[in-house]
Amino acid sequence: MHTIAVTGGKGGTGKSTIASSLAVVLSEQKKVLLADVDVDCPNDHLILDVERKKLVDVFQSIPQWEFDKCTKCGTCASVCKQNAIVAVKGKNPAFVPELCIGCKACIVACPVKAIQEGRKKIGKIYSGDKYGVHLVSGELKLGELASGEMVVETRKVADDLAKKNGFDIVLVDSAAGIGCPVIASLHGTDFVVAVTEPTPSALHDLKRVLYLADHFRIPRGIVLNKADMDTGFAKKIEQFAKNHGIPILGRLPYRQDVVKATIKMKPIVIYDKRYKKTFIDISNTILRGL
Prior knowledge:
This protein has eleven helices and eleven strands. By secondary structure, the chain is α/β, with parallel strands linked by helices. It has a nine-stranded mixed β-sheet, sandwiched between helices. A two-stranded antiparallel ribbon has the order 4-5.
């Protein structure tokens, strides 16, 4: 089983568009599971028009006090880097569960062992099937901060399902950026598909996410989306890729077809068959790189 991450740094470059169509094309050769780990705003189920069903609730560790043991020393508040615990002299600690990330530092630090481990729900993981693709989709509860933890749990569920059911490929559709959720998305993958567009901000963010891939020593390639939006800047990205020995996996034009496909809730390779050869070429290049 191989794991391929689709990322890119900048938001709006078309990561989910690329990931969903790649999954559909790859599913014609392999048994494919698509893991949508953009847990703050998952939307692969919308592109694939999948009716999701809940698999599991996801919980996170939180502290629970035994106030009859508490000496009101304030140690728990002093070690909480999220400021989820507020200590007021002579009073029991106040706790803001929405700020807690479940690090358990307060539990470890309490000198009188007055804090036990509880839990709170931070999200849900869903599943569904369409076009020969099995989708696993993580969704963080509104207002929660534990995006990284939710990504880890979603990937764990996806990997367990893939191993249990003999899938060949897990395709991970990551969030934008280079923060904790993206690091959790890339960690342990076999190949990184970095989706970019010909704009200065996209190239800037592409370089940062490729640094992550290099840090984890993961083979990587670039998909240049909206390539004809600015052909001059597209050449700059291609030159950057050449200078750093990074393959251009494929180029996609800037067309209204993709917008129409999204509105109709269809992957572009289903909505317009003319795009299928491009995605087949991209998928074959990736498979050769694994």
